[in-house]
Amino acid sequence: MPKSRLFTPGPTFVPEAALSAMSRQAMHHRTPEFRRILAEVLAGLKEVFVTRNEVLLLSSSGTGAMEAAVVNLVPRGGKAVVLDSGKFAGRWRILCETFGIRAVRYELPWGAAFEPARVAALLREHADAAAVFATLMETSTGVGHDIAGISRAVKENGEALFVVDGISGVGAMECRTDEWGIDVLAVGSQKALMTPPGLAFLAVSPAAWRRIEANPKRPAFYFDLLAYREALSGGDTPYTPAIPLVLALAESLKTIRARGMEAIWAKTRLLAAAFRAGIEALGLKLAAARPADGMTAVFLPEGIDGKTFLDRLEKRFGIKLAGGQGPWKGKIFRMAHFGLIDELDVLATLTAVELLLLEFGITVKPGAAVAAGIQCIAESGRS
Amino acid sequence: MPKSRLFTPGPTFVPEAALSAMSRQAMHHRTPEFRRILAEVLAGLKEVFVTRNEVLLLSSSGTGAMEAAVVNLVPRGGKAVVLDSGKFAGRWRILCETFGIRAVRYELPWGAAFEPARVAALLREHADAAAVFATLMETSTGVGHDIAGISRAVKENGEALFVVDGISGVGAMECRTDEWGIDVLAVGSQKALMTPPGLAFLAVSPAAWRRIEANPKRPAFYFDLLAYREALSGGDTPYTPAIPLVLALAESLKTIRARGMEAIWAKTRLLAAAFRAGIEALGLKLAAARPADGMTAVFLPEGIDGKTFLDRLEKRFGIKLAGGQGPWKGKIFRMAHFGLIDELDVLATLTAVELLLLEFGITVKPGAAVAAGIQCIAESGRS
Hints:
Two copies of one chain form a homodimer. Chain A has 14 helices and 15 strands. Chain A has 383 residues and is an alpha/beta fold.
């Protein structure tokens, strides 16, 4: 077995201190010690989300946080605008349909980016929409959507709340919850927060709380956000939380806060730029019309099967990238630029991709990818 | 700080091997290795639950599994019988109400045990009830309900499915899912399974699956059991699972399977008997009319505040027991008899309780509690 290089857009590597924290013998959660750690974690998350809104911690995957946003905010029979392009954006639509909410879709082909002007037009047409559901970084396509612009379109066209799936982007790439006017932000633990999967978070604005309070028949118990808010007022969670994951997150957040969000966003941007410079030097095509900082999705050359390529990459070098989903199954690979992944990881991955392409009989200039990546990083170092 | 002795009925101490498993660097879940571990875990859980029914793994607290049972089995507008006595049984009722299900209550005061004959009568009166919701071990009162007897009453009186909250009892005390006719069994990770909180499990009978399939409008996405079954057919979970907790569970299950369920049930029964012998020797009163094997709840003498007593117990000896909830807040203490807790822990706790009672000015014969407990254990060793 080669060494493991887990570079998928989640789960991602976890810092040693966070791993160690999980191996600590069990503690009870209704204790001053755990309450102190939980409070510290929630304060840290506010810093990462750049928000003064209340932050809630759920013991579930990110999908649970998405469900919580849908069922708490929009009553059965209500209407919502869903920005639907890619596997995860599509989940907003399915959630709406599951809970009897009419989803007005702004649908685009995979890889495309939503235009704020079209969101505005849709809201003028559907003034009764209770919420707009969007995605910061669409992990299935690598698109980074214009959340600031879309939010302005939402705010200028009625009373709809703006809800963003930031599960995999937040903590990696710029996301200013309050400044951008995000009413509900959903985030997952196993991405840029460098914590194992099993926790999800929601930052909820005062306007969103008012809407939740005015929705007494919300079909929610485990995901009833008012129960979380009430428990939080006593420093607790309403149900037993996944304690070791909270302890791990406390450690990862120390690393993140020490670094600062601006510095982390800049580093993510640099890794993305370097990786893309290398990918373009190889003549490969990016999958996203508007690539996110937090990851890159790349089309493989015609005739190379994605599974075969990624299996060989892992077998030879332990590099685990993600493949394509849905219509892009077998056609793309996806690499994260967040968490513990650094410049050398990006350059090493470019090197490995280049080597494999050569072995698959694709004509590339040896060293071209890493040269382009190095140049990009060096330029940034000089400036 | 004294050493930690966490003896609450969950969370409970976790074996060293399970703790170590969590500190392993992150792995991806869509891999042959994780699928192998998940399959091993599900096979182990079937052994613990004594079932051939399909077992599903959710990343949530036990409450999530309860919600999943309710929303998948009973359609909005349907009817269910709820055996309601204690905080956790009451959760079945609240879940039904939340999701628009009419809950016919068989309500008893805290500490009482349900009678199968009355369940039968209720079902004859409500032949249209889709399900009966019951509790194996009511953690708020320490009652162990007659699940085998209640199940017979259910099966002999109509078509209602029998659903049991076994969150804290299963794995500690006898529970024969298939033999007893439990259609849906909900279990949590942080109790007798000796794993941290954050995972929940459901064992689902063929009859329950048919009911779920016939309930197309179930308000469930994160807890949609058909999605779990479909993912499971490919060895997966539908959403990213709490990976480190699954790795921990795999280790804890090795310990449990090596021991065997009959042996574990017998040990739990012995610990309960020894603890109760000691408690009775102190002149204290059990809270449960039908005490569960998995834990004991005890009334404190009049005039001793529960919080003060438990705080001193923890400060002096690191023994953490649980206090009372709801109407019994400040009036009882609760000790688990499962997991890593052994005979010496039970005897030490009796000793500490006795010592504190003396210090609080209660007249007890020094050594009486531990003497009664020892005698009980020694008798069992001789037989």
